[in-house]
């Protein structure tokens, strides 16, 4: 038997010599090509005895595939994207594919650099989640390889696209507060360079307008989808004596920042201020008080995107099932006090 120390240096030539066959025969067996039954059994036995693991790079050169899928998200550390990544990994690992993740941090140059990394690694498909890449660039990618888009509203690209009604979800969150009697409602949005943030702001504005409510300029705050930005915005609102009875945060992470700021200023949720988030991250059901939010099925989105990529790589049409957003009412909202 070959020692463990030498296993890393084994080559197809070593296997061929021990099995008494040609290098091409060993290569055919490794890559699943047809050889005579007795040769197949002999070579496979030697491969097992030598604990031989073929180079992934070498196999990809033979097969023309790397079994990798490039996945570009805006922030891999975000709790929402972490949930989506779980869904992507769950599906790809079942099919023998491996994801290569990159974050763009809402930066076009970083997005382009990430795409180049994917191309340099000869990925078999690319999943792009959100982002700023132009329609022309996306169409060029779609013409070259399997491409799946998530959250790119308003682009016309020959690629399967998964979009959720962000504007409608935000409308529902704001309407929930209005139905509880709130009239002074603050919205802390994500960065206005980001499509989802813009759509959610529009949903808030639509709901306020449809219910005959005016929006004060200081009720519109811009954050960055992270806790700190919403914490600072809320502290500023209170310090400026801005009147409000409710806050609709553009995502759950910012809602957590809102909650902390209110706590620091001695305001209680929901007795003094009602708070609504967006995404329904797992932690949102366990904060105090549990957060009312819009459920966005992040893991299902990831699974759907991965399924679509696998289908395209197999030369099949991608099947995209509809996904809905849902208002989840918990204990962070209550009827306004008269």
TrEMBL record:
<feature type="domain" description="HTH lacI-type">
    <location>
        <begin position="10"/>
        <end position="63"/>
    </location>
</feature>
<dbReference type="InterPro" id="IPR028082">
    <property type="entry name" value="Peripla_BP_I"/>
</dbReference>
<dbReference type="InterPro" id="IPR001387">
    <property type="entry name" value="Cro/C1-type_HTH"/>
</dbReference>
<dbReference type="InterPro" id="IPR046335">
    <property type="entry name" value="LacI/GalR-like_sensor"/>
</dbReference>
<keyword id="KW-0805">Transcription regulation</keyword>
<keyword id="KW-0804">Transcription</keyword>
<dbReference type="GO" id="GO:0003677">
    <property type="term" value="F:DNA binding"/>
</dbReference>
<keyword id="KW-0238">DNA-binding</keyword>
<dbReference type="InterPro" id="IPR010982">
    <property type="entry name" value="Lambda_DNA-bd_dom_sf"/>
</dbReference>
<keyword id="KW-0678">Repressor</keyword>
<dbReference type="Pfam" id="PF13377">
    <property type="entry name" value="Peripla_BP_3"/>
</dbReference>
<dbReference type="InterPro" id="IPR000843">
    <property type="entry name" value="HTH_LacI"/>
</dbReference>
<dbReference type="Pfam" id="PF00356">
    <property type="entry name" value="LacI"/>
</dbReference>
<feature type="domain" description="HTH cro/C1-type">
    <location>
        <begin position="6"/>
        <end position="57"/>
    </location>
</feature>
<protein>
    <submittedName>
        <fullName>LacI family DNA-binding transcriptional regulator</fullName>
    </submittedName>
</protein>
